[in-house]
Amino acid sequence: MKDPVALLARLPGRFPDAKRWLIAYSGGLDSQVLLAAAADALPQSQLLAVHVHHGLQAAGDDWAASCQRHSNELNIDFQLCRVAPQSSSEAAARDARYQAFSTLMQPGDVLLMAHHANDQAETLLYRLIRGAGVAGLSAMPVERSLGQGRLVRPLLSLTRNELEGWAKQRELRWVEDPSNTVQQYARNYLRHTVMPAITQRWPGAVSRFVETAGFMAEARELLDVLAEQDAASCLEAPEVLQLPVLSQLSDARQNNLLRYWLHSHQWVLGGESLRQLRCQFLQGKANPERLLQLQPDLQLRTYRERLFLWRPSLLSASLIAGPLTLQPGDRISLAGGVLQVEGSTSADSCTLQLKYRQGGERLRPANRGVGISLSQLFQEVGVPPWLRDSWPLLCDDSGILVVPGICEDQRWQGKSNLSCLWQPFGLSGEPFFC
To answer: How many other C-beta atoms are found inside a 10 Å radius of the C-beta of residue 332?
Structure first.
């Protein structure tokens, strides 16, 4: 029989900088084994048992109390986290649980979860039924980031029967959640009806499913490496793809890069969204201003052969109400970027004000000799249309003095030694437009 203690004893070697080992502790069989094994294998002073109380079961308070008693018996610190899922669904409870863990974790924390081989097999089958690609079929990763720490599943190689056998040998006691037998939940239906039928016909199915998930994880890693290579030539900024370069790739590599790019910004590109994206941006004659709404506050937009990922809320949140007087040394953090005024002015210098475009503004850029409308200036330098109304302008009572990051008016020359810097930021907090 595989020994859970031996599996956990390897963890300090894999994570030598770990400061705390958090145990996701529900009180069920799997987490009871995990806690007992951790007590034997890991430094007791670094252990913290974390129980998430969802408030969905009448016996929830009793389970929390039982978990605390057992943790005390093992001299393991215990923390109770109460959450309020948006509904009683499996997905809502899971989201609330992971959010609680994420909030709790500090740098150097490693969260251990007790998912086992049967859970992995069910995840693979469930995602296959729902329709998934390589990433989905890789099922649950053995390790990933969570909050400020790492999430690790050290028991994925053990079946539930192996965990139960070990628990009985150790004379462990655990609680049974009655909701685990309610087959209206898809997971429970797979666990109690589908998987028994499969394993009766094919006894090695669970291990084969786990092996397949491992193959998919390897394939995903290779596809990510390929996407990183393609991104090196296609990405102009974290939220900007160059469409002419992207179009030179094969369809399969385009799809792979698009999925990878959007996933890096916390968006999973489904099949229908991918078809719409390809139809609008990668097929037929180029259109300088196309838009695909991915969700209420997330858009894909094109301008001058570039594909932008954009949140409209960044624009509206960056605007200020009315003109704002600026002084040398001021640094203003707006939702869309940072504006900074550097240098000094004489006592009789003009009052500087931060304003936004209203329409009809003109200026005479230094070294140009002729006037130009602000609208034409934005077009010339390629500012995307949806950024123009939120672009800060440094003005006096007579009009525009500086269009930060773009140009200065002739009136600005010789009046001061001030400089005005502006760099709009995108979703990643990195420069979005240069």
So the answer is: 15
Q: What is the DSSP letter of 55?
A: S
Give the tens place of pLDDT for each residue, 362-401: 999 888 878 999 999 999 888 888 888 888 888 888 889 8
Q: How many domains does the chain contain in total?
A: 3
C-alpha to C-alpha distance for 42 and 155, rounded to whole angstroms: 15
- Tell me, yes or no, whether 128 and 39 share the same domain: yes
* Domain-embedded: residue 432: no
The pLDDT value recorded for residue 312 is: 82
C-alpha closest to that of 332 among 323, 342, 324, 340 = 340
Task: Kindly tell me if the per-residue pLDDT of 71 is higher than 60.
Answer: yes
Relative to beta strand 20-24, strand 47-53 is parallel
Question: What's the CA gap between 277 and 269, in Å, rounded?
Answer: 10
Does a structural domain hold residue 233?
Answer: no
What is the average per-residue pLDDT within 114-130?
A: 95
Q: Which amino acid is at 374?
A: L
Give 145's strand partners. Answer: 150
| Nearest Cα to Cα of residue 336 among 363, 316, 362, 321 | 316
In this structure, the answer to whether residues 196 and 245 fall within a common structural domain is no
- Of 261, 263, 258, 308, nearest to 432 by C-alpha is 308
* pLDDT score, position 78: 97
Contacts of 347 (CB under 8 A, 6+ apart): none
Kind and range of the H or E run holding 50:
strand 47-53
In this structure, the answer to whether residues 71 and 207 fall within a common structural domain is yes
Query: Are residues 417 and 366 part of one domain?
Result: yes
Residues 332 and 342: their CA atoms lie apart, in Å, by 12
| pLDDT at residue 340, rounded to an integer | 78
Same domain, 64 and 159: yes
* Domain containing residue 416: 319-424
Provide the 10 A C-beta neighbour count for residue 433.
Answer: 23
Reduced to 3 states (helix: H, G, I; strand: E, B; else coil), residue 289 is: coil
Using alpha carbons, select from 118, 140, 141, 122 the residue that is nearest to residue 130. 122
pLDDT digits (tens, 9 = 90+) for 252-276: 999 999 999 999 888 888 888 888 8
Same domain for 274 and 138? no
Q: How many Å is the maximal CA-CA distance in the chain?
A: 90
